[in-house]
Amino acid sequence: MDDKTAKSAPLGQRLELLGPADYKAAIRRMADAIDAPAAVNLESCVRCGLCADSCHYFLDNHELKSIPAYKLNLVIRVFKRYFSAVGRRAPGWTGAANFDESEAREWIDSLFGRCTLCGRCALNCTMGIDIPGLIRKGRGVLASMGLVPDGLDSTVRTALETGNNMGITRQEWVETVAWLEEELQAETGDPEARLPLDRKGANFLYIVNPREPKFYPLTLTAAGKVFHAAGENWTLSSSFFDVTNYAYFSGDDSAAGLIVERLQRAMDELEAKTLVLSECGHGFASNRWEAPEWLSRKLGYTVKSVLQVVAEYVRTDRIRLDPERNPKAVTLHDPCQLVRMGGISEEQRFILQHAVREFVEMTPNRKENYCCGGGGGQLSMTDFTSRRRSAGRIKAGQIERTKAKVVASPCHNCLDQLAELNRHYKLGVEIKSVVELAAEALVLDRKKPA
């Protein structure tokens, strides 16, 4: 299949056009992807089934295909067929399977359509298997064949072609920042308040989810308000400003590396010391943990979540928050890639405990919290919308039991999914980001630090 067809044809058509040579190439891609540690993981599953109750898909529909071990076994059985001596000689006896059109269809449905890469299964696996990591490797094999679901594929291509996943032009971005700077000045009453662009030598470069300037611009104003109150020396880039990396979800390491390399270029050009990431779960995972692997080198700069920055402002008295300004009960949804996979769990709680009058935890929470259903690229893959929304019932139940009036989450994918669950399940709550609540609680009648 030629590259032009792979990029333009719908997924079903791309699948039908594949030939034997394409499947052989996919097996070679699998050989490159499955290193020794991954192979050990593939051979370690004991089929105990305990991962089932960790998965929000299985808890919702109780289908065999939704059990994480079943999804993992799709990769295992193809691996056995081509890379195991017994599997090659006696595929029927070992449960090995040929990689063909039928198998590829099931991979697409399960690896993309029944998994958010949330990692809760791995956390509860008795053998400690990195199930989401192996599923992502399977997605990478599909990506090498041009078999990424259309919406996710389009999102990745848009980011590669335009520099951000929403296709926002540089002019549109610069004009939006200028408009929001005026809003910030009006809100703070300070004509010196800035949303600085391309300021060289700043303490940090702040990057955002393109959905913020496109659909939720006041979240960017909220961050600017907090930075202004702290007297921070910070900047935005007019060139590359996108915290997201949907190639993390598609499994395409080459594309993922190109996206983080652009941010590295912006950091070098602006001579910034730290890359600060707006509220984004997979954006944190991509830029903090995966980027050095994709680039095969150290980044040369520090990477932090904005939650870490704002929490430090509160701890050091650089900003003061009045919790009475947020009187409604607030609960917190923990983004999987930020908390369970990324290790950032207490900063958002520290901020909320100072920013709201009543903070109510979901049960379970932190690393054991259930995925909302919006991760893994699910929001961009419309073929699986019904399944995603249904699996979100688990999260809706968590929210209802808290009786909170506001749901906070430090991730825009999560916020979008939570907003949809709010409408679908009639939860009657407000959905806000953590920094947004901090900005609403800000006390601005203080002198900025020298």
Topology:
Blueprint: H1 3-8, H2 11-16, H3 20-33, H4 36-42, H5 56-61, H6 68-83, H7 85-89, H8 91-94, H9 101-112, H10 120-123, H11 131-144, H12 150-162, H13 170-188, E1 204-207, H14 211-215, H15 217-229, E2 234-235, H16 247-250, H17 253-270, E3 274-277, H18 281-295, E4 302-305, H19 306-315, E5 329-332, H20 347-355, E6 358-360, H21 385-391, H22 393-402, E7 406-408, H23 412-424, E8 430-432, H24 434-441
Parallel strand pairs: 1-2, 1-3, 3-4, 5-6, 5-7, 7-8
Molecular structure report:
Helix 15 (217-229) packs across helix 24. Helix 23 links the parallel strand 7 (406-408) and strand 8. This protein starts with a helix and ends in a 9-residue tail after the last helix. It folds into three domains: 3-147, Orthogonal Bundle (Fumarate Reductase Iron-sulfur Protein, Chain B, domain 2), CATH 1.10.1060; 161-315, Rossmann fold; 323-441, Rossmann fold (3-Layer(aba) Sandwich), CATH 3.40.50. 53% of the residues lie in helices and 6% in strands. It has helices at residues 3-8, 11-16, 20-33, 36-42, 56-61, 68-83, 85-89, 91-94, 101-112, 120-123, 131-144, 150-162, 170-188, 211-215, 217-229, 247-250, 253-270, 281-295, 306-315, 347-355, 385-391, 393-402, 412-424, 434-441; strands at 204-207, 234-235, 274-277, 302-305, 329-332, 358-360, 406-408, 430-432.
